[in-house]
Known about the structure:
Blueprint: E1 2-15, H1 18-27, H2 29-36, E2 40-63, E3 67-88
Antiparallel strand pairs: 1-3, 2-3
Amino acid sequence: MKKTQQLSVRVNGKGESKQRAFAIALSQVQKEVFNHIGDIVLRIEPQDIQVVSAKQMITTERFLFVFLPRKRTLYDITLDVSVNVSFVNLADIEFKSE
Length: 98
């Protein structure tokens, strides 16, 4: 009834700090696993994380296009996460009608 499967999902995160971008990417793992597995998920256990791409974008903003320049940094990270998923296959359960 309980089954285990290993998946690899690709997630992406953007944020104003490295930690925020990484946390946003990891928070999307559960959503991607639910999209791949249509059954009831019991456990998602990460096994390995690989960085596909990591970018840092720096832009300069100015007030009224001239005054008070400031630099803003945006981080973009793409990860491949290998996970072991334990789930219950609903097709294996036989429901009896009364």
